[in-house]
Write a structure and sequence with these properties.
Layout lengths: L4 E9 L6 E10 L4 E5 L6 H9 L6 E5 L4 E4 L11 H11 L4 H14 L15 H13 L5 E5 L7 H16 L3 E5 L12 E6 L2 E4 L11 E7 L8 H6 L2 E6 L2 E7 L3 H9 L6 E7 L5
Parallel strand pairs: 3-7, 3-8, 5-6, 6-7
Antiparallel strand pairs: 1-2, 1-4, 8-9, 10-12, 10-13, 11-12
Protein name: ABC transporter
InterPro entries: ABC_transporter-like_ATP-bd (IPR003439), ABC_transpr_LolD-like (IPR015854), P-loop_NTPase (IPR027417)
GO molecular function, one term: ATP binding
Length: 284
């Protein structure tokens, strides 16, 4: 995503005389950012995400800077005439991949999410959890510039939930944007660049209380070539980076993103040496 996605004065209602679900919404989603949306049931969170994903159009206002977008809905329609793998290949070609590239990406994501054994299973025969894994996989196939997740972790097992968190970190580290809703307040705690609450038909940015943290962080100490500095992806993932001497850094990162940070550093060319990894202690 090279441009900021913007909602300016956006409102949405269903029917000519229906009540406004959202009105006067202003929001910018910039490349490389993670945005959390909160709010009570029925306040319009899903409507906002459908507007961001381009599934719905605003009744009033403008949406500009539309990136290449993928969306995981709150409810995935499993009764489609495909096997899991065939559905993913079909969606991959819709997103612009060749059939070969789509098949490769489908296999990789089914494996990562623990659903490789269901590749040949018709969608209608999948369990709710396996259907959700397919829903997540279809959104990640073509490396979207904007990933919109509406309760995407619901129904996933623990390993798949962790894998989706890693995928979110990978998307933002590579310059994509992610907007998500989740009922678990600890989901990706400390990772969002911004948190918004949908309330009374409007969107309100939440201001964090100084010194209060939503979740655990990890400190990664690394040593690398003194010339060139940290890889750009590592800088995007880390909450902070302190250089103690040339080429030696202490990177603080949300615990949910630590695996992706380590992978980024170890696969850099040349790779960085990880000196230590430990939980951050004390007030921040």
């Amino acid at each position: 995503m090279r441009r900021e996605l913007r909602l300016d004065g956006v409102g949405r209602r269903y029917g000519l005389r229906g009540p406004w679900v959202l009105r006067g919404v202003d929001l910018g989603v910039t490349p490389g950012t993670l945005v959390r949306v909160e709010g009570a049931n029925g306040t319009g969170k899903s409507t906002l995400l459908r507007l961001l994903a381009g599934i719905d159009t605003p009744t009033e206002g403008r949406v500009t800077g539309r990136p290449r977008t993928a969306y995981v809905p709150e409810r995935f329609p499993p009764a489609l005439p495909f096997t899991a793998a065939a559905y993913l290949v079909h969606l991959g070609t819709v997103h612009g991949l060749s059939r070969r590239a789509a098949a490769r990406a489908a296999g990789q994501w089914l494996e990562r999410l623990g659903a490789a054994g269901h590749a040949a299973t018709p969608l209608a025969q999948l369990s709710k959890g396996s259907s959700q894994k397919v829903a997540v996989a279809q959104a990640l196939l073509a490396e979207p510039e904007l990933l919109v997740l509406d309760e995407a972790w619901t129904g996933l097992d623990a390993d798949a939930r962790a894998e989706l968190e890693r995928a979110v970190a990978e998307r933002t580290a590579s310059g994509g944007a992610v907007v998500y809703v989740d009922h678990d307040p600890s989901r990706l705690a400390d990772a969002p660049d911004a948190t918004y609450t949908v309330r009374d038909g409007g969107l309100h940015r939440r201001t964090e209380v100084a010194g209060v943290s939503a979740g655990p962080r990890v400190v990664v100490r690394v040593q690398g070539p003194p010339v060139g500095g940290l890889p750009a992806d590592a800088v995007r993932i880390a909450a902070s980076a302190e250089e103690s001497r040339p080429g030696c850094y202490a990177l603080t990162v949300p615990a949910s993103h630590s695996d992706v940070l380590l992978r980024t550093l170890l696969t850099a060319r040349p790779p960085w040496h990880v000196v230590s990894v430990h939980a951050q202690e004390g007030p921040r």
